[in-house]
């Protein structure tokens, strides 16, 4: 059964590790992530952007697929199904469809409007037992059409949003969606530290997990990050493994064109990436 992400992230923050949010795109992605979580006894959060939700047919289709896999694969670790960078309307759709967690990304609104909309969604989510993430500052780069300038969050604004009762908070600290450019300045630990000083026990979220060096990930966890989002890295791993399979001409050998064979190396590559991240984040054995 799906659970909200509140408890798993409270435990992670208290235990000084982070739970991975891995974004899903289809059945292979979802199966790979759930099986890896089970094999490594790790809690996990499945992230769904609005674009990915649409791609998979809609939010009800996503909920049906995930709930079915939880049952059929006997997934015995805590799993949350979370809307990633949701719009105001998207959040309501996911609450109705059966998600167990939502993110409202109001970072592009003036802070008063972000506060007002987040307040309303906190009540709607909590009324149905879902957890809710909010965002202050912005995550740089682009993800599924959501574009951010990457400005660091104002810690006082973080405190204002935290006080609305959100369950975890994404604060922009120089992180970027997608690959990091060669001239990237790195994470602003000064900002993260200031945010944590003001928001206390609230679990903090690090978006743009792809390509952040291990030492920065570990330092971010010591400063209160309890959820780390990874998307692009699984896409790159899947694409590379699939390309190798095709370039080696394996799809032309025997029944190598069978989708169950063609998509297998990519699926295994996602599993390996997710396992590596769970080990780095410290969530293995914490289910
Ligand atoms: P990456 O694609 O950079 O891993 O970012 C994922 C993310 O932050 C999802 O919200």
Describe the overall structure.
The protein is an alpha/beta fold. The chain has one domain (6-281): Alpha-Beta Barrel (TIM Barrel). 47% of the residues lie in helices and 17% in strands. The protein has twelve helices and ten strands. The chain has helices at 6-15, 27-39, 50-55, 59-72, 88-97, 111-127, 155-162, 189-199, 214-222, 232-247, 259-262, 264-281; strands spanning 19-23, 44-49, 79-86, 101-104, 131-136, 141-143, 146-148, 168-171, 204-206, 225-230. The strands form two sheets. The chain has an eight-stranded parallel β-barrel, surrounded by nine helices. A two-stranded antiparallel sheet has the order 6-7. Helix 5 (88-97) packs parallel to helix 6 (111-127) and helix 7 runs parallel beside helix 8 (189-199). The longest helix has 18 residues, at 264-281. It is globular. The chain starts with 5 loop residues before the first helix and ends in a 6-residue tail after the last helix. The model has no long low-confidence stretch (mean pLDDT 95). Bound molecules: 1,3-dihydroxyacetonephosphate. 1,3-dihydroxyacetonephosphate is lined by residues 23, 47, 84-85, 143, 177-178, 207-210, 229-233.
